[in-house]
């Protein structure tokens, strides 16, 4: 190990440092050029097959080059970076082809679209190349296609810590620069403050600082190894706590049943996260297999390796139930891909846990196999091989064709907004449907979905409660009182989301509705307070031209006071004038707020 540090120090010379800084600065300048083109609505931002590949390549490839300098021979670096470039171009072009949707901006009095990589492609490209680069660096160091596990362990953790501390260095640098700007502002010099607001300065500095930090952490392997060891030791002592919690959860399932688990609608993601946590903590204790581990941690690691399998199986069952009920969607396909990798880990770790004479030594084999599996799965998901949108659209159309879902309940909006080009092509086909009993309804639904704008996506995904079911969501007080008919008939879709309690939408919410005349005009107002978990209360009043709107709110500190709510339900309250008059200036009224929190007096209510 010491020889490795000496060799590394000889390889990473001043010339390599200059090359890394030059690459970082060039990356910053090119990214600024792309940013300015997007800001000013100029080429290449308006050309998706130019902008998306350029952006993705500029985000990933320079970092790979910076990390490769001083470690890979020129021929090795050229082969690796050339291969990475081809993969990035393939991912970017597929991203554009499947769903090239840009932001529409104004340029020279003309609306144009500017493009960028989708968030999922950008995120998982980083994950893909983190894994691939660690494998390549380890293989190059051992001069083998498949390196020793100890080399993989060193390469992966070193790269991860380098990236983490490089990001921290950039953040610390800008913290100092902003502090300096504030100091100069004290003496009325704003040059640094203005400079930090300029993208032409910020983007190159961020990239150059990041490359500098990558170099500094590269030439100090002992420091990186010390940080890694400390981090892994601390994480490993969380393992017994995690084992106790997960064991307790699994032991309660035979008594509580799985119905409550399925009712959450996000059981699969939580269980996947639990499996990932156990995986990380087991590896924190195992490390490269040669670390000295205390007996409690050895026992906990073995138990955690066994617990991963039942947790993963429950997650698979949860996903299977959702697929059986509603078919495949893009999210469910992505979850299934994650479960394939999770099951590989879980099954392998159970096998490793029962190899008593080697104390989890087979984990090293499982980790390497799973790393290559993850690369294959990610490559399949973000290419036409297993595009989640294509699989989801085909599944929904198959359910419609087999009669598992009727035309009136078919989710046309899913095809429009989550099906990418496959969904829009399917809607075009449904729009031309001329045979079948539901042909007219399918044509109408497909036509309406195709006419929807992208900005309508999130509003249309919300399901609002019909007036008939709205009354069932409300408990009216005082007992026997009736809600105004106009309140029940109100179209709540147009009301801002932050002003709508859950009981006014299709979220199965419940509210207490208090009928009071808050302004003394002889017309009732309606105060809604969420139950059983109270939030802020909204007071609704009907306007002179019709339509109900929020005219006031009650804070959580009051709605969470149970004695106060009981008083309101029994009608034991009066309407009183405010103790302090309000300030009025320029047509605006400003009330005085008390200097203490009202919930401090909650316990005094009897």
Automatic annotation (TrEMBL):
UniProt entry tagged with the keyword Transport: no
Annotated transmembrane regions: 17-35, 47-66, 78-97, 120-140, 161-187, 199-217, 229-255, 267-287, 299-321, 333-352, 364-386
Highest taxon of the lineage: Bacteria
Keywords for the protein's UniProt record, in alphabetical order: Membrane, Transmembrane, Transmembrane helix
Keyword Transmembrane: yes
Pfam families: DUF4153 (PF13687)
Protein name in UniProt: DUF4153 domain-containing protein
Organism name: Duganella callida
Lineage: Bacteria, Pseudomonadati, Pseudomonadota, Betaproteobacteria, Burkholderiales
């Amino acid at each position: 190990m010491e020889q490795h540090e000496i060799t590394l120090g000889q390889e990473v010379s001043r010339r390599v440092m200059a090359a890394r800084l030059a690459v970082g600065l060039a990356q910053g300048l090119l990214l600024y050029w792309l940013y300015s083109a997007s800001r000013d609505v100029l080429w290449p931002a308006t050309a998706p097959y130019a902008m998306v590949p350029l952006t993705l390549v500029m985000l990933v490839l320079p970092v790979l080059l910076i990390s490769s300098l001083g470690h890979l021979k020129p021929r090795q670096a050229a082969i690796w970076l050339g291969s990475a470039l081809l993969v990035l171009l393939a991912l970017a072009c597929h991203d554009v082809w499947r769903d090239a949707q840009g932001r529409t901006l104004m340029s020279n009095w003309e609306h144009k679209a500017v493009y960028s990589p989708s968030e999922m492609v950008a995120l998982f490209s980083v994950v893909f190349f983190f894994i691939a680069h660690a494998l390549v660096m380890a293989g190059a160091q051992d001069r083998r296609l498949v390196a020793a596990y100890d080399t993989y362990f060193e390469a992966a953790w070193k790269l991860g810590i380098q990236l983490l501390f490089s990001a921290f260095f950039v953040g610390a640098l800008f913290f100092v620069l902003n502090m300096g700007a504030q100091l100069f502002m004290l003496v009325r010099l704003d040059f640094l403050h203005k400079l930090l607001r300029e993208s032409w300065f910020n983007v190159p500095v961020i990239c150059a600082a990041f490359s500098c930090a990558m170099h500094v952490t590269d030439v100090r392997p002992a420091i990186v190894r010390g940080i890694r060891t400390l981090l892994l030791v601390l994480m490993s002592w969380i393992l017994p706590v995690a084992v106790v919690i997960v064991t307790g959860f699994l032991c309660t399932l035979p008594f509580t049943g799985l119905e409550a688990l399925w009712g959450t609608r996000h059981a699969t993601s939580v269980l996947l996260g639990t499996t990932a946590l156990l995986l990380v903590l087991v590896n924190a204790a195992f490390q490269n297999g040669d670390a000295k581990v205390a007996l409690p941690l050895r026992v906990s690691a073995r138990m955690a390796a066994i617990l991963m399998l039942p947790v993963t199986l429950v997650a698979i069952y949860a996903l299977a139930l959702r697929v059986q009920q509603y078919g495949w969607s893009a999210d469910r396909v992505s979850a299934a891909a994650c479960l394939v990798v999770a099951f590989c880990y879980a099954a392998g770790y159970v096998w490793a846990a029962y190899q008593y004479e080697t104390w989890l030594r087979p984990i090293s084999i499982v980790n390497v196999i799973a790393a290559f599996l993850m690369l294959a799965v990610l490559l399949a998901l973000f290419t036409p091989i297993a595009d989640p949108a294509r699989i989801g659209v085909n599944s929904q159309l198959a359910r419609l064709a087999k009669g598992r879902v009727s035309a009136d309940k078919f989710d046309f909006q899913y095809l429009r907004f989550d099906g990418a080009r496959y969904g829009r092509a399917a809607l075009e086909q449904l729009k031309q449907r001329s045979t079948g009993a539901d042909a007219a309804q399918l044509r109408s639904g497909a036509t309406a979905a195709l006419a929807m704008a992208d900005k309508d996506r999130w509003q249309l995904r919300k399901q609002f409660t019909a007036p008939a079911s709205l009354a069932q969501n409300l408990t009216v007080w005082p007992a026997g009182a009736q809600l105004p008919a106009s309140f029940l008939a109100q179209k709540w879709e147009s009301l801002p989301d932050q002003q709508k309690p859950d009981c006014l939408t299709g979220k199965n919410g419940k509210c207490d509705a208090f009928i009071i005349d808050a302004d003394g005009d002889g017309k009732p107002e309606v105060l809604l307070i969420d139950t059983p978990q109270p939030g802020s209360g909204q007071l609704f009043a009907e306007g002179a031209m019709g339509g109900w709107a929020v005219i006031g709110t009650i804070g959580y500190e009051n709605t969470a006071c149970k004695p106060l709510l009981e008083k309101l339900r029994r009608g034991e309250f009066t309407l009183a004038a405010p103790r302090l008059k309000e300030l009025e200036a320029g047509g605006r009224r400003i009330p005085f707020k008390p200097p203490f929190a009202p919930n401090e007096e909650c316990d005094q209510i009897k």
